[in-house]
Structure formats: C-alpha cells, structure tokens
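My main concern about presentation is that the manuscript never shows what a single data entry looks like. In essence, backbone conformation is discretised, so a fold becomes a row of integers matching the chain in length. An entry of this sort, consisting of the sequence and the corresponding backbone structure tokens, reads as follows:
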Amino acid sequence: MAHLHRFLDAGKEINFMRNIKLIEVPSEIGAGTRGASLGVEAIKVAAMDFMSNFFIHFPSERIQHENKLLYEPIESPYAKRVKGIYSMYEKVSKAISETLKNNFFPVVISGDHSIAGATIAGIKMAKPKSKLGVIWIDAHADLHTPYTTPSGNVHGMPLAITLGEDNKDCAVHKLDDDTKAYWEKLKNIGKICPKVLPEDVVLISTRDYEKEEKYVIDKHNIKLISTKEVRMKGPENIVRSVTRHLDDCTDIYISFDVDSLDSSISRGTGTPVGNGLREREVEDLISKFMHNRKVCCFEITEVNPTLDKENLMAEIAFNILQRSVNVLMMN
C-alpha cells in the first residue's frame, strides 16, 4: 500500500502517552444503509494491515449497541428507531462524560453519525459551564428534524439535536406523541438544551443539504466553509480562520464524517457526495486543529466496509485517525 511505510514509521512515534481513550460505538440504527456498524472493526483491520500497534496502545471502551432493532418494525417513520437512539444517547453520553471527568481525551469511532449528538451531550455533562465549539467536517449539514426529514434517518439530525432546533417553520410532517416525546428527550439529554449555540458551529465541506437545512443555516448565520474555499486558501489559513471564529469557546469538538471526502475516494460510506475534500486536505485540516489545546474530543464516523473494495475507506480513515492522534500526543 502507498501509505504503508509512512504508518510503519508513524507507529514508532507512539511511545509517549497522553491520556487518550478510544470509545468504540458500533451502532448503525441511525443510518439508512446497512453496514456502518462494521466500520470500527474495518479500521482495526486497516491498522493491522499497516502493521500498526495503534489499537493496543490506548485503553478502550466498547458501547453496547441496539442494532437488533434493525430486524424489528419501524414505529416512528420520521425518527426511525428513536427509542434505540435514545438508549444509545444515554450510554454514549455517560461514557464520554466519565472519560473526560477521569482526565482522558475521548477519541470516538462510531458507526453512524447520529451518535455525534450523544458525544456532544457527554462533553456538556462533564463540562456544563463550557462554551463548546463544534467543527463539523461532513458532506451533510445533519440539521434535519423529525418535522422536516425526507428519510426519517436520525444520522441526518444530530446537529439539530445539539442546537435544540425543531425547525417547525419548515415542517412537512405531523408527529405522533411518542416520536415527539422521544425527540424532546434527545434534545434534553443531560438536562442541557441547547448544548451548543449556532454561532459556535463551523461546517466544513458541507455541500449536500435540503432547503429545510439551508433555512436553519441562513436563519442562524452558521459559518460554512466550502471545499473550494479550503482548496483556495489552504488548510493552514482555514484553521486560522476557524480558530478565530471560535475564539470565545472554552472547548472544541471535532466531528469527521468520511463522506466529507470526495466520492471518488469515499466509496465505502453510505452517502458519498462529489466535490469533496482530498485525503491530504482532511489530514492537514484535522492535524492542524489538533494543535489547539481547546480541542477536547475527536470523532470519526460513517465508514461502511460493505460498500467498499479492499477496505480502502477504512485505510484512509485510519491514516487520518493515527496522524491526528500522533499530533495530539505530541502537543
């Protein structure tokens, strides 16, 4: 493989320890395409193929999933498997909160992106007074709600959950009482709502979103940095601009959905989109963000090896994961 020697060398760098803990969440009940729950293991296989000892160097916790619900009838069509999602939010937020309270840096590897809302909830539970900034590197805005969703898949909703946003102005669905109650529970998990303010969110390479999501972006003037802007200005200037934008924040969470990469690269994910970032651009962006001591959590998500050839998406994800963690440990 082209990156083999680079990561054999990089593996040797892991000989001084920062308090990092891996949180593995092999859940895919928020996704519309099956297979994302296998992403965690696919990334581990990539590490072994690169002869890296990354996964034996850090303590890890594996969160019990609710994927059995995939075989049961859907009760809430506008927030599919929402009861299971809420169960995952309780478990993941608790794990993240305890990890931070024990002075570990949580590196989350999740199946589908719905889990990000739980990760953010866990950060706020551990740091309730923090002003949390969110760097969302994703082809999608994930700002739908059960009132606006075209699919009912909750992996299209975690930012709305985080912002406490219903977007009833654009509502196209009338919710049943059960769905409405669980949606409120998701937004209020940790008894904090909203978790993040819209001005403290930065969307990077977000390019595939519906008019209902654009309404939320425009209403709150959420900062959006296009792929073209990243390419024109370069990762270093983008990082500088984002850091300035989030200057008032006390903590920063970085969420990396692999579909932010161009569809020519990101075939092994459920919703690939063209006009995305190159692998090196993402590596450079995240590794430069990791130099900021305000960064308190990093999540990587939506690797789906069942849609891939030769585990390429997981290998790319592992490259980005390891480089980011190496920088984090040296910082």
The first helix runs from residue 4 to 12. The radius of gyration is 18 Å. The longest strand covers residues 251-257. Residues 1-17 have pLDDT under 50 and may be disordered.
